[in-house]
Design goal:
- This protein has 139 residues and is mostly helical.
- 79% of the residues lie in helices and 0% in strands.
- The chain has 6 helices and no strands.
- α1 runs antiparallel to α3, α1 runs parallel beside α5 and α4 runs parallel beside α6.
């Protein structure tokens, strides 16, 4: 089961790198179009870069917020031998929720479905941690 959990973690890493590429492409396009200058990157003054750039930036930053709890939960579960089918399924559910969130966020950016995909991911993180605690204290 650890192998499938590791694949979920790798999928989350790939998502983060994908968002980084999207962010970079949007930033360079904004610089090429003279919306911002290259010197703006020195202080990260990207207010004038446009919504698409700021949304991609925000999504990239978001990949280092809740997913941190995901990675810690996965590593803790592996270390404590608490990985099972349910844990792995919930972990994959979290990754899928993050992919959906990113597609909405860097795409049409509809706030309501974006919020629900974020909320579902947060609840899955909570479930992962509850599963770890239950496993550790039930032994």
């Amino acid at each position: 089961m650890d192998k499938y959990l590791l694949l979920a973690m790798f999928a989350q890493v790939l998502l983060t790198f994908t968002v980084m590429v999207i962010m970079g492409r949007r930033r360079f396009a904004a610089a090429k179009n003279k919306t911002i200058s290259m010197s703006d990157f020195a202080t990260m003054k990207l207010e004038h870069a446009g919504d698409k750039v700021r949304v991609a930036d925000r999504n990239f930053i978001n990949q280092f917020e809740m997913p941190v709890f995901f990675f810690i939960a996965c590593l803790a579960a592996m270390q404590m031998n608490a990985v099972g089918t349910l844990f792995t399924a919930v972990a994959w559910g979290f990754v899928v929720s993050r992919i959906v969130h990113t597609l909405i966020h860097v795409g049409a950016n509809n706030v309501k479905p974006r919020y629900y995909s974020f909320l579902i991911g947060c609840l899955m993180i909570l479930v992962l941690w509850v599963l770890i605690v239950l496993r550790v204290f039930s032994v």
